[in-house]
Input
Amino acid sequence: MTALSVDIAGIGFWSRGLPSWAAACDYLRDGSPDAAAPAKPASRLLAANERRRAPETVAVALEVALAACEAAGADPAQLPSVFVSMHGDLAITDYMCATLTEDPRAISPTKFHNSVHNAAAGYWTIGTGCNKPATALSSGDGSFALGLLETLSQLQSGEPAVLLAAYDSQSTGPLAAISSSDGLLGGALVLASHADSAVARLQVEYLNTPAPLLPGRLAAYVGGNAMAPMLPLFEALASGASEAWLHAGPAQAVHVTITHRPMA
Amino acid sequence: MPSLAIRAYTATTATGQGRASLADALRDSRSGLRRNDFGDGGLDTWIGRVDGVEDSPLPAALADWECRNNRLAWLALQQDGVLDAAMAMRATHGADRVAIVIGTSTSSIGATEDAYSRLVDGAFPADLARPRVHTPHSLGGFVQAATGLRGPCVTVATACSSSAKVFAQAARLIQAGLADAALVGGVDTLCGSVLYGFNSLGLVSVDPCRPFDVARNGLSLGEAGGFAVLERGHDAELVLRGYGESSDAHHMSAPHPEGLGARLAMTDALARAGIDAAAVGYLNLHGTATPANDAVEAAAVAALFPDTLHASSTKGWTGHTLGAAGIVESVITLIALAQGQLPGTLNSRDRDPACGPQIRLQGDHRNIRHAMNNSFGFGGNNCSLVFGVGA
Output
């Protein structure tokens, strides 16, 4: 197939110790993690009473999505959005399953409606007043790559710019031994068919070949998180590399060719 | 948008396996709902349970994917020639040119619940220590393994709009040149999370659900699986004409009071199909039978469509099948187009006077050329689809 081309208009990133894209870039230039950084983003978009009890997944997804929009100078209310997570909120899954075993009638209605895979997408559209379409996807360790393909498809169908936000959280309880995921990680891109102040232009191909495993410094730091398969692209964007491979299925890959551009 | 050919379509619901049993039940006003006998049966409610799932283990080669949700997926794949049609797409275009876009709300969380109820020293029992079924992509991964298709494979999980949005995403993948055909669908199965979760929100009725009835008091939960095969081109008896998606931007579990998102989705779907509202011959409503959904949806429909529209909810036959509602009700919409059989609204006796005349309790028989399906989910996630008879 022909490669699809797209501009990156803005980047958002958050992990414990690297609470911004700038912090991640500094770290990759021989910096060190910020030990004093908070364990959970501040959820700037949520009302004060919702901030404290917001699930970690919602907090990190909203943080990176907003950071990417700010970097792109884009109005979040005007962007369709694609949210991807391999597992959704693992702490809520643990809560639901444990509570069903102990006392099913005690399930919290808030935890239940926060258990849907599109919880982050829902809070994002509510917090930004966005009536544009939002979706929530999972595709195992190919989740980020499949989200990227859906984002590109939306651009091809005529949308001028689309938000892609990816995240996964810490596993807990008996589920942790099965669906293992460490820490809290999020990454977001505002992608546009053409952006005046693009950070980089990508050419993206879906291939029936396994993605090569290339160790990176970001992967060494937050590689235990279920969204770590997104890291090769973020590492390449930070380091000026000309390509990145992403998992896109059991024997499938997305290959990204990167043309870096000077920041506007 | 260019129309997409529908090469095969099927649904397996509480009314039976395959679309003929669904069409017969619709014609005969036979509900698939029964008193709750699932799991501990502890909730006083009615459910749409699919018979035979317990007796249909997966083939040995797929045993690693074993769980109720994937069983229902496998059962549904055997019906109405969808697997054959998917294999024909594979032969025509190549396995890597056929995408899989599958919707679900809870995927196989029932297996995770089961593991928590049978922990061995705090760990999952050996028969359930299979990571692939304890994650949302269990469904998409299973369908990929079961079909050998190698195009982009993704699970869409936007609650109750999931398997309507699969048509939109597949259409975009094909339009972008990432695939030439797609196997789309959705599967959701009954589990403790949804029964007790919806109960915690006070949305479950103790009676069979009565959509748009003045005395409606909540939903009946159900399970279902369904699929469709889409291909580039419009040389087919039935086609996908358009899709519309939107967000309410209002509340996680309550619809926008003025139905803003519902109106945006329906208007966008009509625009993409290139037809006027008056051209729609049948509208399958989301119609969950919760007081809020039905009031908001009826008002949005009345604001957009002429009084002559025949619109109905079929939740009284199947229950609310959540992430499978999009595909099940798309199949019902396609049956309406293919057979001229327009369902009414089962169980409902006194139409809420707040509803417009579009909301029909009685079925009708009439040839139509265009039909719409609405699916709305938690998070204010809305999708409307327009189907038509082919050129």
In short: The CA atoms of residues 374 and 384 of chain B lie 5 Å apart. The longest strand of chain B covers residues 238-247. Chain B touches chain A through 70 residues (CB under 8 Å). The mean pLDDT of chain B is 97.
